[in-house]
Amino acid sequence: MVTPEIAEKIRQLEEKYAAMGQNLSAYLDGLLYADYLTYWDYIQLDVLLNLQHPRTPIPDERIFIIYHQITELYFKLSLQAIEQIALAPVLSAEVFITQLKRINNYFHSLISSFEIMVDGMDKEQFLQFRMALLPASGFQSGQFRMIEIGSTRLINLVYEPMRPPLKEAPLKEVLENIYWRSGATELATGKKTLTLRQFELKYMDDFLQMATQYEYHHLEARYQQLSPADQAIVAPLLKEYDLNVNVRWPLVHYKSAVRYLHKTPEDIAATGGTNWQQYLPPKNKRIVFFPELWTEADLDNWGKLAMDHY
Fold this sequence. Notes:
InterPro entries: Trp/Indoleamine_2_3_dOase-like, Trp_2_3_dOase. Keywords: Dioxygenase, Oxidoreductase. One of its GO terms (biological process) is L-tryptophan catabolic process to acetyl-CoA. The chain has 17 helices and no strands. By secondary structure, the chain is mainly alpha-helical. The protein has a single domain (58-133, 147-301), classed as Methane Monooxygenase Hydroxylase, Chain G, domain 1. Helix 5 (61-86) packs antiparallel against helix 6 and helix 9 (142-149) runs parallel beside helix 11. The longest helix has 34 residues, at 228-261. The radius of gyration is 24 Å and the shape is globular. The model has no long low-confidence stretch (mean pLDDT 89).
């Protein structure tokens, strides 16, 4: 029996497909013969569980791979949320609140679960399989760099002493001086590591394209477009985001690096050549997405309280 409700939905479907020049009857045939959707097919479970390809027979390498894959999926969700704010046709405090809460939840999950990397692997196993992965490094996460670019003015991603001559420079020149490029140079010679050269070859064009697209649409710029009343509501969430990405996240990495690499002679090589002892601590690099939201005292002590906590 066709109820009035079902009849109305069929009418709406006919209108929908007619507007596209399509015949509803053909689509109903497809629905009639289609199999029921299953959970494992919907999330591509078999594909997902076969995306781990260890380079060694050492068991804990699989932990290392899976955690990094999970991290990249959270980064993808964060970039989607940033895009929702950056490209919102009608900007409001509600848009910011919804998406910032999501991003902060993603990073809270990553930060709180990082114990998997700190204490969740056997140290000797890690040191064995990590040497087989050179020169690959988590430093090479293109999505994390895109999160940075989508969050703030590009000049804020340059070390402070280098900013004055770049304030009026083209984006390409600013990008060439972005802080992380000096985080993957050889200590003895100052030359780029292979890790950095691979990374730049893969992503620099994409980074410039995104920086251009987001030049007036990054989170900092969009925040400044809000009314003072809305800014007061959004500011605490932006500060939490700033701390999550620029203080807490690098600090848990620093803790992990100290746990596994601090006393080994291969410590620099084991992270693909990255000088992590200078590069990871927030108090050293002092990258801040929203400097206008912090006091001078906050900026002078950037990362110190969190360093004490971790």
